[in-house]
Design goal:
With 262 residues, the protein is mainly alpha-helical. The protein is built from eleven helices and two strands; from the N terminus they run H-H-H-H-E-H-H-H-H-E-H-H-H. The chain has one domain. The longest helix has 29 residues.
Length: 262
């Protein structure tokens, strides 16, 4: 019964993530959702900056702290290991929901593309960023990344497989395609308001810090194999120093780290 409850909990956490990430696309792009990055009552500039920075700090702290090895070792004294990842995903989703709900818009334009055809092309490029994010998760193990694999394996009474290093497709050219996709999605916009610029700049800075933390964990996990990967493949700009020495098959990569998309 405990395993079945853990499985249901994992499904609920995954559903919360899925709805939240779909809303995030609409929130950033300003499409199809009731509250976007540029909608809502306008408040004084100082209040908006303080509230928005605080909301992004809450998400960043939750996202990074709960992804670290030491926190997991402490946290799993209270939370069963099988649902640790699902709990992380659920808390991240709730932090994003709080951000969407309480975000204060700064609607003053920084740039705006007036030509509708060019604007559509730019919007399409931003959706390519989201496509890179989603396909990158499936290139590794999407359901492990978001906790479903763990609760399914637990339900079946099997241990989790040992992580293996791998570099499928995008990962042969950039170490962190998930983060690259987010950066494209956040920055490529036909209309860039001050609020959108703040969101893009802070999240990009957080991504860079997150990469440093994540790569430290990956070096600890995979040792020299990951160090050689760092030497061969760029962090965010698609580029490779050596084409012939990549390992086509290992399984957890820069993206197996549970912190992604951290």
């Amino acid at each position: 019964m405990g395993r079945f409850i853990a499985f249901l909990y994992g499904l609920v956490a995954y559903f919360a993530f899925f709805v939240t990430i779909l809303y995030a696309i609409g929130f950033v792009s300003g499409l199809l959702v009731p509250k976007t990055i540029d909608s809502g009552p306008v408040v004084p500039l100082a209040e908006a900056l303080i509230v928005d920075l605080l909301l992004m700090a809450i998400f960043a702290i939750q996202h990074s702290v709960m992804a670290r090895k030491r926190f997991k070792q402490w946290w799993t004294q209270f939370v069963p290991p099988a649902v640790e990842r699902s709990t992380y995903v659920l808390f991240a989703s709730l932090a994003l929901v709080l951000l969407f709900w309480q975000w204060r818009p700064l609607p003053w334009p920084v740039w705006q593309i007036a030509n509708p055809r060019i604007a559509m092309v730019v919007l399409a490029i931003s959706f390519v960023g989201w496509l890179i994010v989603f396909t990158s998760t499936f290139l590794i193990n999407h359901f492990e990344l978001f906790g479903v694999h763990q609760v399914t394996t637990n339900l079946a009474g099997r241990p989790m497989p040992v992580p293996r290093f791998r570099t499928p497709l995008y990962y042969r050219f950039v170490r962190h395609p998930i983060y690259l996709g987010f950066i494209v999605a956040f920055w490529v916009s036909p209309t860039m308001t001050l609020g959108h610029l703040l969101f893009a700049a802070v999240t990009t800075a957080y991504i860079l810090v997150g990469i440093l933390l994540e790569e430290r964990d990956l070096v600890e996990l995979f040792g020299d194999e990951y160090r050689r990967y760092q030497h061969r493949v760029s962090m965010l700009v698609p580029w490779r120093r050596s084409a012939g020495s990549m390992n086509p098959d290992p399984s957890a990569s820069a993206a197996i780290a549970p912190s992604a998309p951290d």
